Every structure is written in structure tokens, then in C-alpha cells.
Amino acid sequence: MELGIFAKTFPDIGATESLEAVRHAGFTTAQFNFACVGMPSMPDRIDEEIVARIRAASLASGVSIAAISGTYNMAHPDAAVRQKGMARLSAMIESAHAMGTRLVTLSTGSRDPHDQWKFHADNTTPEAWRDLLGEMELAVTLAEQHDVDLGVEPELANVVASAGDAVRLIETLKSERIKIVMDPANLFERGSSGERRDTIERAVAMLAGRITMAHAKDRTEDGGFIAAGSGVIDFRHFVATLRSNGFTGPLVTHGLAADEAPTVAAFLRGVLDEQGLRGHDDD
Fold it and tell me: Which among 23, 67, 167, 273 could disulfide-bond with 103, CB atoms 3.0 to 4.6 Å apart, if both were Cys?
């Protein structure tokens, strides 16, 4: 497993600066965000020159681009907002291969009109599911046209809130383009250590054939988010569960401050090294 981080963790603006910061902190791959080059995370258009600059920075730094963040609110109650998000996602999908990746990560969104990461009671309605499916069908068509995969992450606050929801989405769309990003911290808020382990094992087993990337952030005892290795999640168990289910993709951390990155890299590297799973780097 390659060890990675969200590139936008670092305040440096510029593809070279951001990816060099990723490498310096101890990571070999990154989930890229266009905010790293001073653009909106979901820009209206993406110039070829910008894409070439990012690709050159990746090659020069030795930091691969594991994925591009393409998250907009796919379940927003306003169709016009969804339409604008889809247009931006289209530009991102079209640019993925030239940047050196074939994975674009998504947000299945929330009915909350202001925050796609905030739970809304209407997330479980047939209307929310219908609107999400409409967006996903369009995204799948684009992904097939450009040979790109779409990374869907089950998150408690979103329409796809669980592994079961993700299975339902996969079975409904019947497309191999739908892949899963698995973050253990998004599968529960609180619970005993045994309950957490059981939840993680069930989710990974249900989605094993589709998991293309793992995320690593942690939870505090009271349910808040914290940097990996600082909370209640047993990452050795998480990695072992992924391994036993055939996963060999990147492990990408986020939800941490830039000055925490070297410590988190050392922690996760130790977890991977214990099981002989870390990809080789030049250090």
C-alpha cells in the first residue's frame, strides 16, 4: 500500500510546492485538490497548461497523484446547483488522465442546502436517492467516455451513509466505474472498541471487490474527528482487515494540520511496515 495525504493539507500554493511538501512530510502519493494551485476546488474550467504543470510537479517530486477531489453536493435540493456541479465534475474527469490518475473522488451529498457534509433528515427520502442517482448516472457516462473511475465514500452525513447504501448504489447503477473510498472514521460516530471493529469488518467485507482507496482519519471518544493515530480507531486492525480482503491500493490520510503530517506519516508507515505492506520509496 502506498502512503498518501490530501495535498491541500499544506498551505503552499503551487503544484511543485504542495507536492514537495507532501514528499518532505513522508508520503509518496497525494489526493490532489485544485485549491493547491490557487483555484477553486471545483473550477469551471481547467486549462491544459495547469494540468501540465501539475503533472510535471508530480514527476519531479516523485509524488504520484492517487486521485483528484471532485466533490460537489450531488444530492443538493436545487437542480440548478447540481447542474453547475456536474459541469465542473465533467471538466475534472476530462483532465484526470493528463494529471496522471484515473480516479476522481465524489461526495454523494446531503439535502442540507448549505453544507454537503452536514446530515439532513431528508437524506433518507426517495427524492434524495432519485436526485443522487440522476447525478451518478451522468457521472458514470462521463467516466466511461474518459476511462476514469469514480470514488464513492460512505459517510454518515451523506445520502450514501453506510456500506449497505453503497452496495445499493452499485447494484442499481451496474457500472464497474463505481469504486469505493473506505474511511473507517466515517462508518460510526461512537461505540465500544468491539462495535467499531465489527462495523469496519462488515463494511470492508461487503465492499471488498470495489475498494480502490482507503482514507485514514481518526475519532475521539466523543465522536469528533482527529488526526490518525490520536484517537480510538485501531488502524492495525483496519489495515489487516483491508489486507485480508485483497486491498492493495493507497492509504491516504486527511483531517490533520500540516505540522501533524510527519508524525502521522511515521505512525501509518509503522502500521504498514508491521505487515510488510508499504510500497517502496526513495528514502
Answer: 67
